[in-house]
Amino acid sequence: MPSARKYVNRRAHDYHIRRIGALTQLDKVASYLLALNYSERASPTKASQGLIQMDCVAVAVINDEWLIASNSRRLDDNDIILLSEELGIDMTYALIDRGSGQMHAEMQVLEEISASNYSAANVQFGVSKPCCKKCAEWLSHYGAKYSAWHDAQVVNWEKPDMS
Ligand SMILES: [Zn+2]
After folding, report:
1. How far is ligand 1, taken at its centre, from the CA of residue 134, in Å?
2. Residue 142 Cα to ligand 1 middle (Å)
3. What is the DSSP-derived secondary structure letter of residue 89?
4. Do the Cβ atoms of 161 and 141 come closer than 8 Å?
5. Residue 7 alpha carbon to ligand 1 centre in Å
6. Neighbours of ion ligand 1 (CB under 5 A)
7. How far is the CA of 158 from the centre of ligand 1 (A)?
8. Minimal CA–CA distance to 134: which of 154, 120, 148?
9. 2 CA to middle of ligand 1, Å?
10. What is the arithmetic mean of pLDDT over 57-78?
11. 37-56: average pLDDT
12. How remote is the CA of residue 71 from the centroid of ligand 1, in Å?
């Protein structure tokens, strides 16, 4: 009879430190979407499922419109239909695809807010993992809110166009 593992792997402690109580409802939504997107339907192989560690989903709700982006741009309408059913609400949404391929999900949403002539001030961003330092700085600069960030090194960061 198998016994449950009792130890916790702390090797990536710095990056993953985040108390579960600090997760906002939107963080949970973002994490849910990420998990859905890497379920068997969307990721049939171990290799494709492994890409989940590179990905991140960001969500913000402005004027009852859900702005949703992912690093990978893999989200599709089916993911949102499942989310809508899970939340039990009808959703007006936009799946955002901004930048030239390297733009983090949070920055895609931020750029979309700017392009829509909305303000990011006091807008809560839900993210499936803590924002990187650069994203956190940009979100803070525009007054957006987020629950956590990390300062592990990030490569391939693409700046949003806020003009
Ligand atoms: Zn980032």
Report:
1. 6
2. 15
3. S
4. no
5. 30
6. 104, 132, 135
7. 9
8. 154
9. 40
10. 95
11. 84
12. 9
Tell me the CA–centroid distance for residue 61 and ligand 1, in Å: 19
Q: Which tokens in the block code for residue 131?
A: 């924002």
Each residue of 10-26: pLDDT tens digit? 565 555 555 677 889 99
> Would you state the structure tokens that stand for residue 74, as one six-digit string?
């893999």
CB neighbour class for 89 (10 Å; exposed up to 12, middle 13-18, buried from 19): exposed
How far apart are alpha carbons 35 and 49 in whole angstroms? 10
pTM of the model: 0.87
Contact 119, 138 (CB under 8 A): no
Mean pLDDT value across the chain? 89
Ligand 1 centroid from CA 77, angstroms: 24
What pLDDT digit, counting tens, does each position of 133-150 carry?
Answer: 999 999 999 999 999 888
